[in-house]
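Comment thread on ticket #2218

A.B. wrote:
> Attaching the input chain for the structure job we discussed in standup.
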Amino acid sequence: PEALAAVAVAAVASDGNISPEEVQRTVINLSTIQLFRSYDLRDLGNTLNKVAGLLRRRGPAPLIEAVKVALSQEHRETAFFVAADLVLADGVVEAEEKKFLEELQRTLQIDDATALKIVDVVLIKNRA
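C.D. wrote:
> Ran it. Output below, let me know if you need it in another format.
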């Protein structure tokens, strides 16, 4: 769960700013994922704070490398989905966010076809 939370926090921080809306969206997104269903809001908040601290101390690249080791291929795709959903939720993709998603795709070894499918689904989801 911490690895998936790390991707989510890195995604919302990729533009250099974490807004209260992004924090709320992150909590909502993660709370719907099977790995987090047993977490109460305090546990989820503690996990997010822990990975945010790691992100501040180490930066996104080492954090995502550690995530790659911790997650199965299936969970890597889930992590990419969560990141894309958080980045694309506001309908605007900043250059830093695009770079983050590209780097995440490469690091997690998500092939182009799968990444495109994920982004397409996220765009459909966020259209309404």
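A.B. wrote:
> Thanks. Noting for the ticket: The chain has a mean pLDDT of 92.
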